[in-house]
Amino acid sequence: MFPVEFGARPRTREASPTEHKKWVQVFKACDEDNKGYLSREDFKVAVVMLFGYKPSQVETNSVMSSVTPGTSGIPLQEFLNIVRKKKEAQIFRNEIRHIFTAFDRHYRGYLTLEDFQKAFGLVAPKLPERLVLEVFREVDQDSDGHVSYKDFEYALNYGQNEDE
Questions:
Q1: Dist CA 37 CA 39 (whole Å)
Q2: What DSSP string describes 8-70?
């Protein structure tokens, strides 16, 4: 599928010193009684503080199931890794939204083959027309001639965890 071929993947990046400091401060603020780890409830509060939403039960269960056996919660280093990955995913979703918006020149909320042709014509003018058509057909999951944001996002996320 084209996302793998074109390498649509979030870039791993280091947190800035300011971000890192903020994450450590949030960890310490949520670590009641200075236990050295975040409990399930502590983790939920930390996510609200950093990302502005309460994590779902599924997300919380997933994080808590990854905790090292024999420990009571998420230690600082593990918390920092979780937050960094969430931040990268957030940045990647924003990049996808910007790309979709750039393609959607008429602000319709969906893309047509013409939108793809114009965008590819600007960024890759020597790309064969048949390849642009192939990409469009692949991204247009329901073959209705329109690519919704959801289809577009799915295509760019396809295969995201295959190499991990």
A1: 7
A2: --PPP-PPPHHHHHHHHHHHHHHSGGG-SEE-HHHHHHHHHHHHSSPPPHHHHHHHHHTSPTT
Angle of helix 17-30 versus helix 40-51 axis, rounded to 10? 140
Pick from 125, 124, 153, 130: which is nearest to 141 by CA?
153
- pTM of this prediction? 0.64
The partner residues of 74 in beta bridges, in order of sequence, read 38
Identify whether the C-beta of residue 71 lies closer than 8 Å to the C-beta of residue 63. Answer: no
pLDDT tens digits, 3-49: 434 444 445 567 788 988 999 999 999 998 899 999 999 999 999 99
Contact yes or no for 117/140 (Cβ under 8 A) = no
Residues β-bridged to residue 37: 75
Structure tokens of 40? 């399930």
Q: Is 19 exposed, middle or buried (0-12, 13-18, 19+ CB in 10 A)?
A: middle
